[in-house]
């Protein structure tokens, strides 16, 4: 009589942790969200106009739209990296319908501000802002075109690229000595 080997315990697949990446992205997103909250407070609270913020008071609509769209895009976008949520087509699609306009507004207002706001002294990174803002815009459009063709792999690649580009300034502010997280401002 032949018996087949039967393990005492069935093989189990290790579940991958789902939340470390989204939590990290949310923590990284808190940098532009906090900076945006400070800027909105300046604009609505009657802060003193200085050479560094005069351009925002002269034309506040683009920066207000940018702050709101970046906040929505960076925080909600982090949840698109949770595998269990991504697998739920209804949630992923609904979030995408919010994220696509928010991402497009983020890129377009960023490009507009880079092109038309006067530069504060010492700020020379406009060509980089235009390059990466354009790259984000192209990535968003390519992601939308891919999902319309039902090409889920390319959609994921393009949208991930757009999200990474959008979080680039947040990472730069955190790690660069020139970034706002490390600046020491004199107290009056």
Describe the protein's topology.
Blueprint: H1 20-45, H2 54-58, H3 60-78, H4 83-86, H5 89-116, H6 126-148, H7 152-175
Helix pairs in contact: 1-3, 1-7, 3-5, 5-6, 6-7
Question: Keyphrases for this structure?
Answer:
mainly alpha, 188 residues, disordered C terminus, globular
Description:
The chain is mainly α. 69% of the residues lie in helices and 0% in strands. It is built from seven helices and no strands. Helix 3 packs antiparallel against helix 5 (89-116), helix 5 packs antiparallel against helix 6 and helix 6 (126-148) runs antiparallel to helix 7 (152-175). Residues 179-188 have low confidence and may be disordered.
Query: How many individual helices?
Result: 7
- Integer average pLDDT: 83
Q: What summary fits the major beta sheet?
A: none
Ranges with pLDDT <50 over ≥5 residues? 179-188
Strand content: under 5%
Which value, in Å, is the CA radius of gyration?
21 Å
How do the SSEs run, as a string of H and E? Answer: HHHHHHH
